[in-house]
Amino acid sequence: MLKKIFLASDHGGYRLKELVKSFLIKKKQPIEDLGCFSLDAVDYPDYAKLLSDKLETVSNAQGILFCGTGIGISMAANRYSHIRAALCTTVEMASKSRKHNNANVLALGGRILPDKLAIDIVYEFLHTDFEAGRHRLRVNKI
Ligand code: RB5
Fold it and tell me: One of 11, 82, 100, 127 is an active-site residue; which one?
């Protein structure tokens, strides 16, 4: 079964969230958009919480969070012990965040990343598996 991808953003990440959402829908990826739903200003910790709550109860799921820089929303998400949110600005970071850190949430900066790079990062994140082994021991120490 295809894993479910939850998306959430503040206003600073809204535009990129919409772009990534269209890409995932085109790829027939099951998604759920938790908002926000316009460019009106909202607080990113509220959207980090919405997504974190979902990942606590839904198995076989990952999340993608967006704010202006990706910084605030990744900081907020990482306050939840079941979340390992990786703020990525390169495809290699996305790859390593999965292989080494078993990240279950990708965080992106809507005002930072060119669109194509953002899509490439999303693709890499969703198609890369955790390598486990020695990395599992380290992740377990977080
Ligand atoms: C909102 O203006 C902006 O501060 C937010 O999107 C994010 O970049 C915070 O880290």
Answer: 100
pTM for this structure?
Answer: 0.97
* Pocket perturbation via mutation, ligand 1, pick of 9, 10, 66, 79 by most ligand atoms within 8 A of CB: 10
125 vs 133: CA distance, rounded Å: 19
Closest residue by CA, ligand 1 atom 10? 72
According to the model, what pLDDT value does residue 2 have? 83
How many residues can be counted in the chain? Answer: 142
113's CB contacts (< 8 A; 6+ apart) are 16, 89, 121
Whose C-alpha lies nearest to ligand 1, atom 2?
12
Cβ within 8 Å of residue 130, ≥6 positions away: 98, 99, 102, 136
